[in-house]
Design a protein that fits this description.
The complex is a heterodimer of chains A (184) and B (77). Chain A is an alpha/beta fold and 184 residues long. Chain A contains 8 helices and 7 strands, in the order αααβαβαβββααβαβ. Chain A is globular and about 45 Å long. The N and C termini of chain A lie far apart (37 Å). A 4-stranded mixed β-sheet of chain B has the order 1-2-4-3, covered by helices on one side. The chains are: A alpha/beta (184), B alpha+beta (77).
């Protein structure tokens, strides 16, 4: 799928990233994310994902700066007729797709196509309520994980968990925090 | 003989290297791209960005009028 001129302009800064490029940007545009359930963090994640070119399958957020806005007006690429390939789910909601990120109040759980029972068990340890102060951190991290999954940067495997207490800028950058990253 | 040529003399940073990056991606591994560029920032940034992305500078010829001809070989991992 070739990028249009307006897409090259819109995503220019993202295309410049080594992990992305034109090919990565095309991949993001082709891999819709289905939003299942909602909390303050998923609202933030939807905004970042839509801005980055991931089509969103689901309703526009009710909260946050996209509240009341149409995704089409925000980014025409955020709407897609394609079948979604990844789920963004709020804690307490079981994702329906094998590639998924579940966002709770104290962290996020995710899997790149691993066992769904494993993800469900991992995600069950997350608290349901997201404090507004944590929504931006959790939401932006969830969006980053989903983009990395869409770009094929994460190996398939068992569900992984990131706890809020362990999120440092270094951990957010590399999704690696030896002291706090818990894996099942 | 390059496989492709692009003219980025009318582009503004960072679109200068974005165009080069996309053109290099479109080439097969080892393909040669000739770039016409102009301006202090692009002359400094484009060759360096290309090298940072793993591509090879085959030649770089600057002219007195501030423009330059840069020849790159694409390397895809």
């Amino acid at each position: 799928m070739a990028l249009t001129e307006s897409q090259i302009q819109r995503y220019s800064r993202q295309i410049l990233l080594r992990e992305v490029g034109g090919k990565g940007q095309a991949r993001l545009l082709e891999r819709p994310v289905r939003v299942e359930g909602a909390n303050a963090a998923t609202d933030v994640a939807v905004a970042y994902l839509a801005a980055g070119g991931s089509p969103i399958d689901g309703v526009a957020p009710e909260d946050g700066f996209l509240a009341g806005a149409s995704l089409d007006a925000f980014n025409p690429d955020a709407r897609s007729a394609r079948v979604p390939v990844a789920s963004l789910a709020a804690a307490g909601v079981t994702p329906t797709l094998p590639v998924a990120v579940v966002v709770g109040g104290d962290g996020l759980a995710w899997t790149a196509g691993g066992c769904p029972d494993c993800l469900a068990a991992t995600a069950a340890t997350l608290s349901a309520r997201v404090a507004p102060a944590d929504a931006v951190l959790l939401g932006s991290l969830a969006a980053l994980v989903l983009q990395r999954l869409a770009l094929g940067l994460e190996a398939a495997g068992p569900a992984r968990l990131i706890r809020l207490s362990g999120i440092t800028p270094a951990a957010a950058r590399g999704l690696r925090c030896p002291r706090h990253l818990e894996e099942i | 003989m390059p496989d492709a040529r692009i003219d980025i003399t009318r582009e503004i940073c960072p679109m200068t290297y974005v165009r080069v990056k996309l053109a290099l991606e479109a080439l097969p591994d080892g393909g040669v791209l000739e770039v016409h560029l102009k301006g202090a920032e692009p002359l400094k940034n484009v060759p360096r960005s290309a090298k940072d992305d793993g591509h090879e500078v085959l030649s770089f010829d600057a002219s007195p009028d501030g423009s330059a001809r840069l020849v790159l070989r694409a390397h895809h991992p």
